[in-house]
Amino acid sequence: MTTASFPSRTTLTTQDRVVLRAVAQAMFSEDGEVEGERLDAHLHDVDAYISNASGPLRAGLRLALFVVRIAPVLVFFRMRTIDKLPVAERVHVLSRLERSPLAYLSLAFIGWRTVMTFVFYEHPAELAALGYSSERKVYRRRLALVPALATQAAVTVAPEAEESGVRLRDVDSELPPAVVANDTDKVA
Amino acid sequence: MTILRGRELTSPMSTSVDVVVIGSGAGGAVVARELARAGRSVIVLEEGGYHPQEEYAALGPSRVLGMLGREAGLGLAVGLGNTPILSVLAGKCVGGSSVLTGGVCFRIPEEVLHDWSTRLGLEALTPDELDPFFSEIERDISVETVPESMRSRSTELFVEGAASLGVPMKSLRRNTSGCKGASRCNFGCPNRAKMSVDVSMLPDACEHGAVIISDALVERVDVARGAARGVSGRFLDARTGEPGVSFEVRARVVVVACGSLHTPILLKRSGLATSQVGRNLTLHPAFRVGALFDDRIDGWDGAMQSVYSDHFADEGLTLVGMYPMPSVLAAAFPGVGREHRRGVQSAPNLAFFGAMIHDDGGGRVMRWLGREPLVTYRMSARDRHRLWRGVGILGELAFAAGAREVMLPIFGADAITSPAQLRALVSSPPSAKKVECMSFHPLGSARMSADPAHGVVKPSGETWSTRNLFVADGSVLPSSIGVNSQLPVMAMALRIARRIAADFELHGRLAAA
Fold it and tell me: What one-character-per-residue DSSP string does B264-286 give?
């Protein structure tokens, strides 16, 4: 679990948490694949993350969450809030909200989805499932294929004036050769 | 590097120095180091916290962005009219936005400088005049070409797709030393390889006697008889982040370097009498296209950014290879529930291609609720055309590289599977409000001008309306530059700092008078 930079700051009310948990369940655990405890921890992390933002922005996020809460009313004219619907119906409602022709309505959900996925998918279990590792594999293999380059000493390309502007359209051949900097240890 | 943490200070502070610098990002750090080296007593006041590289290197992206980013990385520019809502990333920490950039370094393109010197009358801003400043900064922050071996597979596909359409790509230059391809430059380099100013400039400034105070919110520049006399503000409370204990710093020279979003707010709050403050904001709207391939790509394996193309520079577009962290790209997938999960699971097969608009401007920074500004942006018709042209180019490159599906930056849109679909969409595009756009280079909101009617600061960086008050950050750049702005901001700040150092006695006499 994480904490905000300023520990006493929180943003989500109990009601907000109920709504957000319902959305998280629809987003990440439609088939019950994510445990309830992890969803609870996710809510805590989301709250800690957004609590770093300013008061007006947090108020805007809560307003957007209210829009998500009453999405069944807005998109299907059903007089129920999102947290009162079964998971499958929540998914249906949120999908319609995402595709709403009213940009600000869809952005209310997309904004929250962005925050939630950003926090959810940095969990080590999710990263591992994607095959993400902080260790560089392909780059490491590629270095092994170019031992001549890899044995060069660390080189900082001293910038020449004519190499430094963006418009280098006709001077490709003058670009400095590719060099490998400070990574000889990886090859070994 | 010793930093005084304002959040730990419990009693009011009052002091006098030669120079007070507000902001410790790319501009402020350069000014602080330069004037400290020149023998001046310097205090740097930074609103954000101090997080040593060892600390942020160990944290996940959301924690880094939460602690080091302004508005936790959720800042927005509100689109007016047929304009996308742009997310605007800026730093709020010791080191500022330089800690959160990809490290890409360009000089200001010559045609932009030509425009400044001819159309805007800023005759001193020529390539020859600026060359020594660029060269010095490039050396100090270790600007180097990204080697081809550092390219991720995603970047290689970008290059292959471009080559098959006759679009040349070139290696980027970045301020790195010993990059290990962690592909998370914009969440703070975990390997201390990115030479952000907290690593490259501020330690040197401290060695020369500069004092850096974090968590120090400057509320106003104190002005008397037309000259800046110092600043006043409050330290932020450690638990709530709200302003608490007050401080006052008297100085002979005040340098504002809060970045394009906050410099105008501080200047307005300090009573700067010019209508130009906060206007003329440019954002370099950026967007990306996802390309799904049959083979696994693992695009995070390599440098986050390593190539670019200025082939379409005449059309106001720069193409840039990029790859976000998996947790960031997860947000790019449309859908809900199973559909979204399926999309995220395809992330290892996904490449990303990006582009940036050399925009006409149309942005404005205003004071409103709280301490953060209200940023609005009205995209010009020409930039909207560039936007869709850029989406079309990136989509064509993706299909040319062999992509099975292409995900366009349109909220809620399904992936497309053929160039024909792409062309149909670009020829009859949806509302720009539905486009996912980002900005990493807000510029120009306190721009430099040859006369007081058209800008906020003189070519020397001093404000037209207040003596001894200087601005040295991205806000002084008079227009959009079409390339990443970190190096230009630092070079301009160095130029301004040199002028301050050279004329310091004069400034001191004026302050005394």
Answer: HHHHHHTT---TTTT-SBB---E
Angle in degrees, CA B358, B362, B365, rounded to 5: 115
Distances (CA, A) of B203 to A19, B27, B34, B50, B140: 47, 15, 12, 13, 12
Phi then psi for B137, rounded to 5 degrees? -65, -45
Structure tokens at B73: 């990385």
Q: Please tell me what DSSP assigns to residue A154.
A: P
Stretches where chain A sits below pLDDT 70 are 1-4, 134-188
User: Distance (Å, rounded) from C-alpha B470 to C-alpha B461?
Assistant: 5
| pLDDT, tens digit (0-9, with 9 covering 90-100), for B276-297 | 999 999 999 999 999 999 999 9
CB-based contact, B222 to chain A, within 8 Å: no
Q: What angle do CA B369, B375, B378 make, to 5 degrees?
A: 140
Indicate left, alpha or beta for B39 from its phi (over 0: left) and psi (-120 to 50: alpha).
left
Q: How many helices (H) and strands (E) does chain A have?
A: 10, 0
Backbone phi and psi for residue B443, each to the nearest 5 degrees, phi listed first: -140, 160
Q: What is the DSSP letter of B69?
A: B
Query: Please, is A188 exposed, middle or buried when counting C-beta atoms within 10 Å of its C-beta (0-12, 13-18, 19+)?
Result: exposed
Interface probe with A: pick from B7, B47, B51, B74, most Cβ of A within 10 Å: B74
The backbone region for A104, taken as left when phi is positive above 0, alpha when psi lies in -120 to 50, beta otherwise, is alpha
Residues B9/B211, Cβ–Cβ less than 8 Å: no
**CA-closest candidate to residue B383, choices B79, B138, B17, B68:** B79
- In the block, tokens 């806000």 appear at B475
**Amino acid in the structure at residue B434:** K
Q: Touching check for B129 and chain A: CB below 8 Å? A: no
Q: Which residues pair with B374 in a beta bridge?
A: B366
Q: Test B330 with A115 for CB contact under 8 angstroms.
A: no
Alpha-carbon gap, residue B508 to B500, rounded angstroms: 10
Structure tokens at B199: 């690593």
Query: Are the Cβ atoms of A56 and B150 closer than 8 angstroms?
Result: no
CB contact under 8 Å between B372 and A57, yes or no, is yes
Q: Which of B62, B93, B296 to mutate to test the interface with A (most CBs of A within 10 A)?
A: B62
Interface of B with A in 326-355 (CB under 8 A): 326-328, 330-331, 333-341, 344-345, 347-348
Is there a contact between B451 and B444 (Cβ–Cβ < 8 Å)?
A: no
Rg of the Cα atoms in chain B = 22
- Locate tokens 């410790």: which residue? B24
Looking at beta carbons, which residues of chain A come within 8 Å of B108? 165
What are the E-state strand segments in B186-258? 211-214, 216-224, 227-236, 243-256
> What span, in angstroms and rounded, lies between the C-alpha atoms of A151 and B411?
47
Positive or negative, the CA dihedral A28, A29, A33, A38 is positive
Known catalytic residue: B340? no
CA triple B478-B479-B484, angle to 5 deg: 115
pTM for this entry: 0.91
Q: Residue B211's beta-bridge partner residues?
A: B43
Q: pLDDT tens digit string along B467-502? A: 999 999 999 999 999 999 999 999 999 999 999 999
Q: Go through the domains of chain B in sequence order and give each one's CATH number.
A: 3-50+93-101+106-140+196-278+445-512 (3.50.50.60), 145-186+283-439 (3.30.410)
Cα-to-chain-centroid distance, residue A57: 18
Rounded Cα distance between B463 and B448, Å, is 9
What 3-state DSSP class applies to B496?
A: helix
| Percent of chain B whose predicted confidence (pLDDT) is above 90 | 84
CB B67 within 8 A of CB B52: no
